Amino acid sequence: MESTKDLEKYTYELLAERGVTLEDIAELVLYVQKPYMPNLSIDECRDSVASVLAKREVHNAILTGVELDKLAEQNKLSQPLQHIVTHDESLYGIDEILAFSIVNLYGSIGFTNYGYLDKVKPGIIKDLDSEVGGRCNTFLDDLVGAVAAAAAGRIAHNEPHRVQHALADE
């Protein structure tokens, strides 16, 4: 069995290989949490992302999802799964289910953060979802959104006194 530290290191390497950095995810955390915590810093966001990325269940979800994306790129999945994954079919939903294993780390706020990020697709999520570079990121875009959502939820849970109500822009 791999040590948690080894898996964490491999997870960071895998994300980097796919064009995702801790900074990219921290920017998503800031994007989603700033309306509720106006004085939130990017450093706090980075720390929270690093904390989420230190968890073994997060490593397992990312390793599994990215491996499926890579296999799809190599046309190594059986049909009809090959078609479903490479086309990121909207009714597939397993990519979101895998992401939920990360979102669950910080409760319902993680779900709402994730749903919002999945809908608006800001930052690196949009880049991953756009299929630029010919890569299949059916799982990775959702996993990155889930890490950001969990990290934002972690911040809110750890410092609830800082959270303010925010009204949606009309």
UniProtKB/TrEMBL annotation:
Any single GO BP term: lipid metabolic process
GO molecular function: phosphatidylglycerophosphatase activity
Domain of life of the native organism: Bacteria
InterPro entries: PgpA-like_sf, Put_PGPase, YutG/PgpA
Domain (YutG/PgpA) ranges: 24-157
Pfam families assigned to the protein according to its UniProt record, in alphabetical order: PgpA
Name the UniProt record assigns to this protein: Phosphatidylglycerophosphatase A
Lineage per the UniProt record: Bacteria, Bacillati, Bacillota, Negativicutes, Veillonellales
